[in-house]
Every structure is written in structure tokens, then in C-alpha cells.
Amino acid sequence: MVFNTVNVKVKGEIRAFSKGITLEEVSKHFSEKYAAQIVAAKVNNRIKELTETVEEDCEIDFIDLSTDDGERIYLRSLIFVFIRACKEIFPDSRVIVEHSMNRGIYCEVHGSFTLSPRQVHRIEERMREIVALNEPFKRFEVTIDEAKRIFEEMGFRDKLKILEYRPEKTVHLYRCGWMVDYLFGYMVPRTGYLTKFELKFYLPGVIIRYPRKESPHELPEFIDSPRLSRVFREAEKWGTQIGVESVADLNDVIKRGKAGELIRVCEALHEKQIAQIADEIAAQRDRIHLILIAGPSSSGKTTFAQRLRIQLMVNGLKPIPISIDNYFLEKECIPLDENGERDVESIKAIDIELFNEHLTRIIQGQEVEIPYFNFEKGRREYRGHKIRIDDNQPLIVEGIHGLNEELTVMVPKRNKYKIYISALTQLNIDDHNRIPTTDSRLIRRIVRDYKFRGASVEDTLRMWPGVRRGEEKYIFPYQEQADVMFNSALTYELAVLKPFVVPLLEKIPPEHPYYPEVNRLKKFIKYFLELDDSEVPRTSILREFIGGSCFKV
Question: What pLDDT was estimated at residue 553?
């Protein structure tokens, strides 16, 4: 007997559909159950594009724009249309997708012209025409040799190098209209899905603005970040200077046996930058009493603070560290978040009044007994740790809220020096496929949590969304208030992290709820050649995550 129907379960509801129906057609029956536009689906826990058909009974969870995966899929498809529009208006152009910036994605368009606001407007107009055509994204599989031929024809020669390091013998490409490209991940079915976007000229490039998962029905407010932009630009120039701008470039260095030299050069840059920050602080020692270090998770704040302390000592200072963690409120006093859970990421979880009282007394030369927070008991204790400083002893405070004036409200601004630290990855897989800074930090954290905190991959991935929400609320809004920004990313680090993280990712089975995210990480890190950590110095920020640091981290 032939069955021509399949049973589909969505959010607990089971419906029967004709066998061979597309996921897009099925999604129309369940759209009211989702908060935003549906762009893809998880079928039995595997991400599928809406163009795929349903051939057997299954459980489906549709992916909409209020999710990380949905946001990535929408943006990836939008970038494809952006590249196509650029190539149609400026046939000799080279489009490079750089990094996140000002709640959008910053790109540069190079060629025998100078990008201007008028030209950006032309590109946006052409994009809207392509969207209005509602043209399909067609996925097809080819051999590596055939892909090379296609990319040569398209003028995407940067992709030829990275295909040399692809372990599989085939690759899935996408065609939309005349253009064929390979973007890292899944796409929406047709261009008509991409109605919400805006291009903004941002010298010397352009920012693609798109709906974020926090506000999937509208474009987010544009908030300029000139300091952060400058750090990204410096990282880009650094990559050009050392000849490592892509994963393929890094792999070539490793193959040639030159990785040790690259490691030493990258570490020397960090040391030089930290020394310059210390010199600047020392030159203002009469006014700077408080050094505040803040940044998102897995930026390497702890090692940075230790290395800065050493460089300050070279300048004749004797800095004293203070941990904000010791000023946590007792558990029952910590405010609740929107989910009814204790919001330990909030600045309201800190006893700000006591912290400021202690700071002002210490800065004025008084002796103060610093509390110790017992996290096992959720209580503050006093264990006789007393601090008194002299003129050559600035305080170093490292923590999530360091840049927020509310944390140190009683200390005059002129007496503070604020440092923002983050791992701002400058490597791309190729011109059109960037490596998000967030992914680099997540891989750092997975390795560190497993090695030093007894946490599994599942534990880290379960905590990560909360960590990211805390960063968006309590760190990123204050980053531009820093006196200096330090980029803790190391050009070579993902090659060193690969042998640590891949075995951990491999433990997650396909049926596990976190498998789609794990599989996404595995897919992009496979392009890196592995690099032994034997030449990574013990002072390196990377040692905070893989072990072997000479500092207590």
C-alpha cells in the first residue's frame, strides 16, 4: 500500500500533508505560531532550507528572524544580493565583507572608482530591484575543480585558494540570476524574502543594515562607533602588513613551516601595544588612580590585566588589583531579569555603594578591608585582606561593568583610565565569508570552560545566550567611552584552538539540541590547518584558554 501523506509535528501540533510538499508550503500553515518571518527550518534537528521537500514523518521547528540562525540566514542572503548588485553596477569591483559594525555589517567595494554616497544609493536601488524580482536561490553541488572554474569565470579568485584546503571533494554553490557564489551556510528561498534592509555609506565603505533578532520587524537604531571602527581598520592593515588576510594565507604560512615566526610577530605586537598603554598611564600617574578594564566574555581580560601590571611595574608603578566579583550582592538581593531569574550580569547585582566607598577611601590613602565573596554560600565574607596604597599604586579593576560610570560614580572621571578589550578577528575565510568575532570568542570559551571549569560543550552553549544578552546590555553600549581599545585577537589562534575544540564538538550527537550550532562551528573551523601550541609563549593571552600560562588566570 502506498502512502501519499506525511505527518508533520510543529510545536506539539500534528498535521498531515501531501508527501513531497515543500517546507515553505508547510510553514504557511504555522506562521502564526512564530514571532517573526520564517526563513528556514529544523527538520528532526537538522537545519534545512525552505525549498526542500518533506518525504517522511518528521518534527519541524521553523527558524524565524527572532533567532540567531534566522538572523544569519537573512543576512547571508542579503550579502549575496549586495555582491550581485555591486558587480552589475561596477563589473570590475571586488567586494569584501569585513566585520560587524554599528549594528550592521561593514563591507568595502574596491575597483577603478571611489565609493561615494551616490554610488551606495545606486547599489541599494539595484538591490531593491533584485528583491522585487523575487528570484530564487538555487543550490547545487559541484566538484572542487568545477567550482574553481566557476569562480574563475565569476572573477572570485580569492575563493580558489581556500578550496585547496576544503577536505571534501565537492561543494554546494548557489545561483541567483546570473551570479554563482559560495556563502558559508543556508539561504532564504527567494530574494523576495529580503524586503527589510538599508545601505549606509561609511567612509571608505558601506554598512549593510538589516533586522536583528532583538527587533526582527524593523531596522535597529544606527549608533556610530568610530573608536571600534578604527581598531578594526588597524587590524585589517596589520593583516595586510604581515601577509595573512585569510584562512588560506594562514594555512600557507603553516605549510611553509613559518608559523613560529608568525606567532612571535603577533605576540610582539600585543606586547608593544600593552607597553604603550602602560606608558600612557605612567605619563599621567599624578591624576590616574583607577584603571578599569572591561570587555565581552573570553576577550582575555585576566591575562591582559596581568601583562599590563608588569608593564606598569617597568614604569616604576606598583598597581594593586581589585576584583568586582567580591562586591556581589547576596543572592536573594540580586534583581530578577525578564525571565524571572537572578540577573547576575546586571550592574544592580553589584553593591555599588560599598564599592565606591572603598575606592574613595583607598584613593585618599586610607586602609580598607576588602571583602571576599563566597560563591558557594552566596555570601560576602571578610578574611582580613586589607589594602592601603601610596602615590605609585594605581588600582586595577577588571570586570564586565568597568566602562559604566555608574560603577565608579564617586571617583572623578579625570582620575580614571578606561580600557576596552575584545577579540576582534581580522581573518576572513574568503572575501565574502567572514569569521564573526563572536564565534572566535565562543570557541575560546568552549576550550577554557572544559579545561578549567569542568564545563561541557553543552554547558557552555546553554550559558552563551545569557552571556551574549549581558554583553549587549551592559558592555557594548559603553565601549566608545573607553580611553583606549585593545584587540586581543591573534591571527594564528584558531589554528591552535582547532585540535582542542574539534574533539569536544565531535562528542555532540546529531540528535542533541545543540547539534546544529556545533555543526556550524565544525564546518568553518575545518578549513584551518592545525597548529601545535608548543611555540605559543606562556605570557600569551591564548594561554588563558588552552593552559600553560605563567600567570594565575
Answer: 62
Q: What is the DSSP string of 504-544?
A: HHHTS-TTSTTHHHHHHHHHHHTTSPP--GGGS-TT-TTHH
Residue with cell 609563549: 537
CA gap 27, 445 in Å, rounded: 35
Q: Taking a C-beta distance cutoff of 8 angstroms, is the pair 295, 303 a contact?
A: no
According to DSSP, the β-strands at 170-176 and 138-143 are antiparallel
Residues in the chain: 553
Local confidence band at 436 (pLDDT 50, 70, 90 cut-offs):
very high
Beta strands at 395-398 and 290-294: parallel, antiparallel or unpaired: parallel
- State how far the Cα of 206 lies from the Cα of 437, in Å rounded to an integer: 19
C-alpha cell belonging to residue 402: 568597568
Chain centroid to CA 534: 27
Alpha-carbon Rg of the chain, whole angstroms? 25
Select from 421, 450, 425, 453 the least CA-distant residue to 438. Answer: 425
The sheet carrying 46-48 orders its strands as: 13-18, 5-10, 58-64, 38-43, 46-48
What does the alpha-carbon distance between residue 219 and residue 125 come to, in Å, rounded to a whole number? 17
Distance separating alpha carbons of residues 173 and 248, to the nearest angstrom: 19
**For 296-339, how does the pLDDT look when each residue is reduced to its tens digit (9 = 90+)?**
999 999 999 999 999 999 999 999 999 888 898 988 888 877 77
Task: List CB contacts of 201: < 8 A, sequence separation 6 or more.
Answer: 115, 116, 117, 120
Instruction: For residue 14, count other CB atoms closer than 10 A to its CB.
Output: 10
Q: How far apart are CA 305 and CA 242, in angstroms?
A: 27
Burial class (CB in 10 A: 0-12, 13-18, 19+), 512: middle
Distance, CA of 359 to CA of 383 (rounded, Å) = 18
CB 456 within 8 A of CB 441: no
Beta carbons of 117 and 203 less than 8 angstroms apart: no
The one-character DSSP state at 384 is S
Residue type, position 105, single letter: I
Q: At residue 3, does pLDDT exceed 70?
A: no
Please give the C-alpha separations between residue 113 and each of 120, 200, 238, 529, in angstroms, as whole numbers.
12, 18, 24, 37
